[in-house]
Structure prediction request, 743 residues.
Amino acid sequence: MNTTHSTQQPSACKPKAIASPGQPSSALINRNRRQLLRLGVGLLSLGLLPMLTGAVAVMAQEKPLAVTLTGVESQNFPQVTAWLTVTDAAGPVEGLSTDNFEVIEDNQSSAVIPVTVKAEALQNLRLVIAMDTSTTDANLAEAKAAVINMVDNLGPGDKASLLSFGNAVTQEYGFTNNTAALQDAVGRLSPKKEKSALNQAAVNAATMLEEFTDGRKAIIVITTNFDNLGSPTANQLSAQLEQSGAPLYVVGLGNKTQSANPLKNQAAASGGQFTYLPKIDGLSDALLELEKTLRKGYKVSFQSGLKADNVPHNLAINVTGTGGSGDVAGSFVAIPNEIVITPHGIAANQSVKGVVNLAAEVVSPAQLVAVSYLLDKQLLAEVSSLPYNFAWDTTAATPGDHLLTIKAVDRAGNEAQVGLNLVVLAPLRVSLSTPARQFEIGQQAAIQVKIESLAEISRLDLLLDGQVIDSKTAPPYHFGLDSAPYPAGNHQLAVRAEDSLGRVAESSLSLTFVPAPPPPPGRVESFFRSQRVQSGLLIVAASVAVLAVAVVAVLTIIFLNRIYRQRSRRQTQLEIINLGNIQSRYSLSGRDTQDNLQFRFTLHGAVLPEMSPQLAGDSGAGPIPQPAAARTAAQPKSLGGWVHTPVVEPNDSLWVDMQIIPRSPYQKATCAFEIVSQAIDQPYAPKIKERGTVEVGGVFWGWRYLSFLVVLVTAGWLIWQIIWLALGRLPAVGISQLFSMIG
Prediction:
């Protein structure tokens, strides 16, 4: 623990040569002593002295010590350091040790133990140097040289001021540690033939020193005379000296100061002294010796038992020596100080597992009470002895992010803590990886497994979709997965590890099995998959489709036309009766005068056969017989319009179905016709004619043309759709290429 000294003292600790309540100050004791001696003389004249001789003897034997507190430092609380001077009538008291000092805090009944006392030169003098200028040039020159020499010994912690006095008191320079400036002020003094305001100079100096609450205060008066102005009085000077707590040191030069100088008593009563020098050449040595005397003091250090609450506390120091005792009161502030904690063996954001040895280096103002280790504000351990280490078993903590706090408290109540964010690793961790996340069915998948464990691994399982498909009990912990038995789709792959202590850890990832691609096409398939071939096939298919639509349209029109013709046909039955005595066939024919009708004869749904010329010639029936040569040249092989029936038995009849087919089925008309029949197998059988009429209803022209138009429009629309669809399937084929392929 580094310690820095500070001479600055709280305002509550104003160093005065006064005692705490119940303890008289040295000045007050001297005054009471003088009053008691005068009282003894008076009582002696009254015959009462024998009654008080014992008390006077006791007071005369006791030589009380004057204790002056020059500074208190508590920046390193609970370490408190006080600087003080101890003087008696002969000057500074030296040779005191720890046994001579007693320190009491906050008016407690017992003293602080232990206390360290060390004789140490004070470095915070607060001096007022008052020089008498009502003297000769030679005396003032010697005095200035002596003062300049003394000022040259002042250090940076000292402060001094310069007064000159004759008829009046003049402040030549205020308090400063600038020795050069102060020496220049001394050098500027000049002698004056005036009276000596010595008492006023001492009063002014005491008043100036009241502003200081720390440091070794003193008034140094250098004079060749005594006060000859009469104001202020000696009592007023004594009161001001007592109030300021500054001892008065008077150096009298020459014979004028040798007689009973009134300041001798005031100097002694304030804790200072009067020094007579018959010759001025001894002034320099006297001032240097006085400066050394003023620096003689003690450094008293102790460990406070109070808490660091940052408020002032009372301080009393009692000093006991061979010549008597004295005390002084002051105060100090219990300043909280920082505890510095340096963790060892662990750092922020570190990942830990297993047993971690925690340790901390702690620098504290006071002795440590304990060092605590907390995890997420829950106490892990409290250590009260060096080296404040702790073996932390991280397996008892939940894996994940945690806050480890190291907290220290010392006897002074100072606290500090350091927080470290840590990641506690699981005692057993397992992870798996694969070269890829997608595999073709039938492909082998290599599975890498990484295990971190504090104990021996007893079993490692490989799972697919929750089912164990492989296991290992010893390294190497790698698996091969054959994807052939599994369907295409997403699958969950996992590994599960178990150690010898029964701890289990898992890790998983998703895999996708996709069907294997088909084999590459052969030459024929590649040919048909080429763009030009597929485009050509598409054009051919479109052409075939267009042709098919056209054919269907034509067939539809033919079908409609046939339906319309079928509707215009008329059907009736003819009965043929064989009235002869032999069996015979009969010829039939139908004719009309305007040639608007056609006739069809059927028997049981079969069309009766047409008559051949030979049959007509043999029978003599039918048309007018002609010569064979002419008949052969002029007539076709069959006689148009004539048909013959099967054989009809004598006295039997035959029913023949007859269809009358108009040649113009769309026109409405009334047509006359006749049916001619003749027996073929009966020579010279007469022709039998029967006449009749038939009404042809026709078809409404709108139905006739509209139906055909609908068929044509529908066919055209289908052909356009086929062509548009074909063009849409050929995005990469240009028009020129399309025509070139078509051509």
